[in-house]
Design goal:
Length: 82
């Protein structure tokens, strides 16, 4: 399965991962509520792909955010992207 990370803010492609199996704990998805999962993760079964919303470094910088004040899934995303 391929996992595509896209910046929620500017739409920039961030990263693509290819995995045999999605380990929800490793990816931090188990920390999300059902609502957050619906908002953040789109699964395309026919394409065998997942689309995950995140934020790119450019937008994080331009918004003046840093890891200390980023909350919820965004900080979780960043921890496994990098
Ligand atoms: Zn961006």
């Amino acid at each position: 399965m391929k996992i595509f990370y896209t910046c929620e803010y500017c739409g920039e492609h961030i990263d693509t991962l290819e995995v045999d199996q999605v380990d929800e704990t490793k990816f931090g998805f188990d920390c999300l509520t059902a609502q957050e999962r619906q908002d953040i993760i789109k699964t395309d079964v026919t394409e065998n792909a997942m689309y995950v919303k995140s934020l790119c470094d450019t937008c994080i910088t331009s918004m003046g955010l840093d890891d200390n004040i980023m909350i919820g899934v965004t900080s979780t995303n960043r921890s496994y992207i990098h």
